[in-house]
Amino acid sequence: MRRNNKALPLDALRVTSRATLRVTLLSALLGAACVFAPAYAADAPAKAEAAGPLLQQVMQGMAQVKSSRARFVERKYLSIVNTPLEYTGGLAYTAPDRLEKNTQTPKAESMLLEGDKLTLVNAKKQARVVMLSQYPLVRAFTESIRSVLAGDLTTLNRYYKVSAEGSAAEWKLLLVPSEPTMQGVVKEIRFTGAAHSIKTIEITEKQGDRSVMTITEAGA
Amino acid sequence: MSQAPAQGPGLARSDARSSRVALAVWLAGLLACVFVISRTPFSADLSAFLPSAPTPAQQILVEQLRDGVVSRMLLVGVEGSDQAAVAATSKKMAATLRSDPLFAAVNNGEEAGLTPDREFFWKNRYLLSPGAEMPNHFTSIGIREALDDDIELLGSPAGALIRQILPSDPTGELVRMIDALEGGARPNSAEGVWFSRDGRRALLMAQTRAAGYDIDAQEVAQAHIRAAFSGAQSSAQSSTQSGAPSGAQPVAQPAAQSLVLTGPGVFAATTRASIKGDAWRLSMIATILVALLMLALYRSPRVLVLAFLPVGSGALAGIAAVSLLHGAVHGITLGFGVTLIGEGVDYAIYLFTQIPPGGNARDTLKRLWPTLRLGVLTSVCGFSALLFSGFPGLAQLGLFSIIGLIAAAAVTRYVLPALLPEKFAARSVEHLAPSILRVVDRFTLLRIPFYVLTAAALGWLIHLGGPPWSDELSSLSPVPKREQQLDEQLRRDIGAPDVRYLIVASSPDAQGALEAAESLAAPLARLVEAGALEGYDSPAQVLPSLAVQKRRQAALPDAATLAAALKQGQEGTPFKAGTFDPFLKDVEAARTQPLLTRESMQGGALALKVDGLLIKRAAGPANQNNGWATLLPLRGVQKPEAIEAALAAQAKADGKQAVLLDIKRDADRMFSSYRREAESHTLLGALAITILLFISMRSARRVLDVLAPLAAAVLVTTCILALSGAQLTIFHLVGLSLVVAVGSNYSLFFEKVSAAATSRERTIISLLFANVAMAIAFGLLGSSSVPVLAAIGNTVAIGAVLSLVFSAILARR
């Protein structure tokens, strides 16, 4: 009677056999999402270019980090839950494009991003490989974190309008989606950081659901 | 018609009268033929060369090749160096083609145009998902476990998506459905559309409404795709010139893009074009060459025209006969007309060349006719082997040849003498005769080399264990290697089914066929587990049988029960009360929703899938009780024997009919069995010829004289073909039976010559000319790019020349 848990949702996306049907099902999932997430017409204020010099500075600083390890606590504030859902675990980054997220609670699962390849291992140690290029939405999500870590402004600009404030020592980044699929789901992504490391990532969805990930240096 | 006077030169008068009768009959016949032909549909349906299949599995095979989903699939590639521009072209083309009524479905990896399918899946998830049938699924325990899983899923990268559907689907039916359909490699994609792995070619799939064998419609569909491509190209150029580039995209230079197109419909259209082209071109060239030969021989334009009367009349009669008996005439049958030019012109050549100076046509014919008639009868025996072929196309060829030859001979006998100029004689023959005869007479010196050659050929064939037959369907494919490779490449990139393995489950009605497919789910799951195959597709996955739907519906709890279970299961989770009200509402609605049928699907990819995999079979003797079938295409088959064994066990257990179709193996088997059938027909034809010769000659020795050169010619021709590396197919076999039909004329005349020495040299020279005409016509056919035509052409050209040479070598003097 157990719910067939090998289905990480990304696996779910990694739909099926015949090409046609695959897309059908993927879009079934996305489409169902759209039913419940009517796209807002509002566009983010385009003050992106104003913060040019600081943004450059922050990204250049991030680009110098060749590898890093950290612990994270992620809280999801959803309208459907009374208390925020909490996930904890470790993060590991190696320049230029390898990012690993190992969740330890509530269930052990991991996500490894290498280039275009996303490897997911769920609580039952079932591994699935997904190509990011096939899932624009997931890609936009993952690229936000990885590109900031890599200081890759070009990639970041492809999916978001980016602006920065603060100083190179204490900075804040605001990412507003420019990609249509992403726009339907996410309102904005905020980063705070100190010098060459990220401190928090806050994702605000269109309907007001939020998730906040707080990152602390490993071993700290 | 004038009354013949009772006296006077009665013979001449009655001749004149019978000539007039013959002319009148001939003209009336021609008119009738033209009338019939004017109402004849001409087909280029290559499936005429697929056998009319005897077993149910083969019948499905032939149906699929003719008409199946796969036969309607066109694969399109847009190539270019600028990925964004290529993707833009792909999107525009897809948009154009989606609104084109010729196409049932167009897919390029975009999400567009799939709204009906989305809704179908989402709205009917409680009937489509296997979840409802799982034990405890909607109890408090089951719901609690599902909610725990949901919390895990919300933390994963797709959490945002799951979050959106969670209130309506906490038990994860959508994900489960998708899981059930999981498997196989996805096409690579970039810029929102499918791309080849190297990223240089955007990929589209277009499914035509018209069947694969409807080549006219396929051609139109391909033209529409090309038009959509150039349309997308030109609009892309104008927009890059006028519009400012948006965002951070670099300005796209309109780089050169090209279109590649492949698929069964493309192959069929190309093949037809080359058949049409070859048939027309080769007939024209053959006609001109033979005409030049005749002009050189007879020095009379009038006689030249007359020489073509038997052939022309024969061709008309042949087409009319095929039309009357088969209802339509195939393009290849017309292409075969070229062979009639060869053999039909022979009759005129025999007559014209053998009229001596000062003689007349009637007397010459009287001398000639018995041999000529026997020759025609022999040919008819040879061709009659084709009449009984299981290939409708070959049966047409046989009928065409038999009627055509009889008509040509009749015109030669009854019409030509009346039309020939008085005192006509082929004078040029006189200059040529002595030197040619000297050569021909020396041929008998070659007897020992001939015996050695024949013995060697026989020995070699015995050593090979018979002629090297190839029964692979692909050896008949008229598609150039390069295009076959392109097709394979696109197919691999797009992940289109390679359609080698299919399971066919049959039943008297559609529901039964779906149930048969469903009953295979368990054994197939075990086979997947055991590594016998990677996965499979089934129409029951998107349209379960009514029985299964009813079962799932019955398993859904009523509103109060479910609400209680939910309340209990949700206790202690972070989810707010009332979050899952949409779930309660949707399950309640599903309990009474109407069951799904094919009509519930309004077009779209899912309907297409069901239509392709749940098929109503054409009525036929082999499937009286199995009017419906479900097709389950298999992926990554490793152990076909294991699958067959499992199907057999399943059939024993539940009595439902399901067979594994290995399309390559079964098609090759089918062709092999038809080749063997054709072999035995050919042997019967040979036997008939022998009996015919015995009846007319009443001498074993004379019959042997006639048959020996033919047998040797067939033997040596087979060896030459095998040595040249040709894979011998059923069409070479047809060619060999033509060699016997045509060659028998030569050996009969040679045999006759030795029996009665009169006008020996004219006879021999007429044979030589006739042979040259044959060699021209069939040799040209051998140069065709269509394997069927080339096989017959090469075989007959070589065989005919050898028959003549061997007849000369073995001639008694």
List descriptors.
heterodimer, A: 220 residues, alpha+beta, outer membrane lipoprotein receptor (LolB), chain A, 28% helix, globular, disordered N terminus, B: 813 residues, Multidrug efflux transporter AcrB transmembrane fold, five-stranded antiparallel beta sheet, four-stranded antiparallel beta sheet, 32 helices, 13 strands, 65% helix, elongated
Itemize the secondary structure elements and their pairings.
The complex is a heterodimer of chains A (about 220) and B (about 800).
Chain A: H1 9-13, H2 19-36, H3 52-63, E1 67-77, E2 85-94, E3 98-105, E4 109-114, E5 117-121, E6 127-131, H4 136-150, H5 153-159, E7 160-166, E8 170-177, H6 180-183, E9 186-194, E10 197-205, E11 210-217
Antiparallel strand pairs in A: 1-2, 1-11, 2-3, 3-4, 4-5, 5-6, 7-8, 8-9, 9-10, 10-11
Helix pairs in contact in A: 4-5
Chain B: H1 10-38, E1 42-43, H2 56-67, E2 73-79, H3 83-98, E3 103-107, H4 115-123, H5 125-128, H6 140-154, H7 159-165, H8 173-180, E4 189-190, E5 193-194, E6 201-208, H9 215-242, E7 258-262, H10 264-298, H11 301-326, E8 329-330, H12 331-335, H13 337-354, H14 361-387, H15 392-414, H16 416-419, H17 428-442, H18 447-464, H19 481-494, E9 501-507, H20 510-519, H21 521-529, E10 535-536, H22 539-542, H23 546-555, H24 559-570, H25 581-592, H26 604-613, E11 614-616, E12 628-635, H27 640-654, E13 657-662, H28 663-697, H29 700-723, H30 730-755, H31 760-782, H32 787-810
